[in-house]
Specification:
It is a single chain. This protein has 156 residues and is an alpha+beta fold. Helix content is 30%, strand content 15%. Strands 1-2-3-4 form a four-stranded antiparallel β-sheet, with helices on both faces. A hairpin with a 7-residue loop joins strand 2 (32-38) and strand 3 (46-52). Helix 2 crosses helix 3 (92-99). The longest helix is centred in the middle third of the chain and has 14 residues, at 77-90. The protein is globular, with a radius of gyration of 16 Å.
């Protein structure tokens, strides 16, 4: 089993506060846990990462589809950060159920229990996830208002 110092530090903080500077976007959508992860070395670069439900297959690339250099047949630090932030946001039980992780869920307590399922690298374009992220960023630029947004009017 792959275990990094990153994992050792995160196992203790499963329901902590989200780190939106590191992982500004995480969602459970379209049979994937997917999101955007900031680069640790370049403020101008972000990585688009996903975990596929059922197979636990994964991928990570820059927003312009350059493969992550840390992705060498096992989950890179961006993928691990995405898992950590999903657990902080949704809780371990919801993430495990959404990803359809096989086994006794009551015995699974952290990201290593998901990574141990040994998904494979599954290359896919980053465009859909990155486009969804950019769309959500647009809401931050709107002036505060008590009026519903037309595309969110079904909440009313």
């Amino acid at each position: 089993m792959y275990r990094s110092s990153f994992n050792q530090n995160t196992e203790n903080n499963l329901h902590g506060k989200r780190n939106i500077k590191k992982v500004p976007f995480v969602e459970l959508f379209n049979h994937r846990l997917q999101g955007v992860v900031s680069s640790g070395s370049d403020i101008e670069r972000v990585y688009v990462s996903f975990w596929e439900a059922g197979s636990i297959d994964f991928y990570c690339s820059t927003n312009n589809n350059r493969p992550c250099g840390g992705l060498r047949g096992y989950p890179c630090n961006h993928l691990q950060a995405l898992l950590e932030e999903a657990i902080a946001q949704y809780g371990i039980e919801q993430v495990l159920r959404f990803l359809k992780v096989p086994g006794d869920l009551s015995q699974m307590h952290g990201i290593n229990d998901i990574i141990a399922r040994k998904g494979a690298v599954k290359k896919e374009a980053a465009s859909e996830v990155f486009s969804r992220f950019l769309n959500y960023l647009g809401y931050l630029e709107l002036a505060p208002s008590n009026q519903p947004l037309p595309e969110m009017s079904w909440f009313v």
